[in-house]
Amino acid sequence: MSRTGASMSRAHPDLAPLAFLVGTWRGRGTGRYPTIEPFEYVEEAVFTPGPGKPFIAYRQRTRRARAGEPLHSESGYIRPGGADGAELVIAQMTGIVEVHTGEVAGNRVCFRSRAVRLSPTAVEVSRVERRIRVVGDTMRYRLWMAAVGQPFQVHLEAELTRV
């Protein structure tokens, strides 16, 4: 049984369309935005199905590729969201909370923010979109955002491998 199959054997049946996400993923990415210097990072993302419950727990951590210092972390949950859909809720250590709805098509999911909320000291972010595609044991994603007065644009791109 594959690593995904073993994890999914105890998962709620409504998670079947999202099974392609399950696992621990590691890899590298790049970030850019008009207000910062471009950067490279290493990432670990973990997607774990709730035992018998219809959710996948998500956690992600990044570090600067060369120096190794922590850059970002976030955690949340993915839930089935109706026909061919999913919901994503994320809390970030930067004081940002995102609520998304998504469309699932085969081995792809596109999450679009419905709400972005900020703590009093968080940097202004108004819109986020996360597109994820998995082929075999390779995950590629892009994250778009509109923030700090800048238009909606690509901020992050990465390729991760299931370990």
Structure description:
With 163 residues, the protein is mainly beta. Helix content is 4%, strand content 64%. It has a 10-stranded antiparallel barrel. The model has no long low-confidence stretch (mean pLDDT 95).
Residue runs with pLDDT of under 50 for 5 or more positions: none
The outline comes out as globular
Radius of gyration: 16 Å
Main sheet: which strands, in order across?
Answer: 1-2-3-4-5-6-7-8-9-10
Average residue pLDDT: 95
Sheet bearing the most strands, described? 10 strands, antiparallel, barrel
Helix share, percent: under 10%
Number of strands: 10
The ordered H/E elements are HEEEEEEEEEE
Q: What is the first-to-last residue Cα distance?
A: 15 Å
Tally of alpha and pi helices: 1
How does the helix and strand content classify structurally? mainly beta
Portion of residues in beta strands equals over 45%
Give a short synopsis of this structure:
By secondary structure, the chain is mainly β.
Comma- or semicolon-separated keywords:
163 residues; 10-stranded antiparallel beta barrel
Summarize the topology.
Layout: H1 3-8, E1 23-33, E2 36-49, E3 56-64, E4 70-80, E5 85-92, E6 96-105, E7 108-118, E8 125-135, E9 138-147, E10 153-162
Antiparallel strand pairs: 1-2, 1-10, 2-3, 3-4, 4-5, 5-6, 6-7, 7-8, 8-9, 9-10
